[in-house]
Amino acid sequence: MPEGVGSDPRQNTTPARWRVLGHPDGILAYQVRCIVEHHGWSEPAEQESHKVVLGRSGAYRRRVNGRTRFADATSVLMLRPGDELAVAHPLGCGDSYTCLEVDPEVLAARPDADGWLHRTGWDGSADDRLDLAHRLLIAELRRGVDRFEMAERLHRFLDRLLQHSGGSGDGEPPDAALDRTVRRRPATLAAHRQLADRAREVLTAGDFALGLNDVAQRLGTSPHHLSRVFQRVTGSSLTAYRNRLRVRAVLDTLAEADGPPLRELASAYGFADQAHLTRVVRDHVGHPPARLRALLTA
């Protein structure tokens, strides 16, 4: 993934080291470690995008729209375009964090993001479960996943984050309202089942280069809605279902005596790389592709 040294993306002034984790379908994920050169306040900088900043280590002070708060490894900050941010490091220890920048079109397709879009941002803290989900997400992105899975993992993390922050604006978890809608309206449940079946059709067609956003566009819905409905109807995530399809296709190819090398196989079926292919296949069937090729072609 791209890495570099530049200004801190929180406010574009403080020096920082950064590493891009991925940029699928309107969500940019990256890690940042701030380089402390002085302990005083940076110049206030106006934000240009919707960002969520999740602390991982260290501590600092931040001033958002004139309000000053102390931030540490438990802190979560949701920023909007136009917010004015400055930071200071009075303890001198620096900090590291994960940042997700989300396109407004992506947020507009999510009913739980209304508060983030149209009211105020959110400045709070992550509980232990949200913090672990954040760290597991980053570990998976750093290990290497394809664009489709990356998009769905990021949307699912946003589900948890926005529910935790009350991002729907009324204090009610988004799933609760959807559950009541499904129970009260059988027609909605039927429509959800139809959407899940249509998603299966698109994924079964075998174009594994399609991203989550591509599939949603073909079905005339949003990635967020499609992901949640598919999980609710089938009990499986889109990524898990797609991986089952890919593993079966890989097994067919591995059974061919003159099949392509594993790196070409990984590219053909949309895996991030050969290591990603090996990990997914082993997780599903208990053996790595090289062993399966020997077994299936014997």
UniProtKB/TrEMBL annotation:
It comes from the Bacteria. One of its GO terms (molecular function) is sequence-specific DNA binding. Residues 193-295 form the HTH araC/xylS-type domain. Keywords: DNA-binding, Transcription, Transcription regulation. This is AraC-type DNA-binding protein. It comes from Micromonospora nigra. The lineage of its organism: Bacteria, Bacillati, Actinomycetota, Actinomycetes, Micromonosporales.
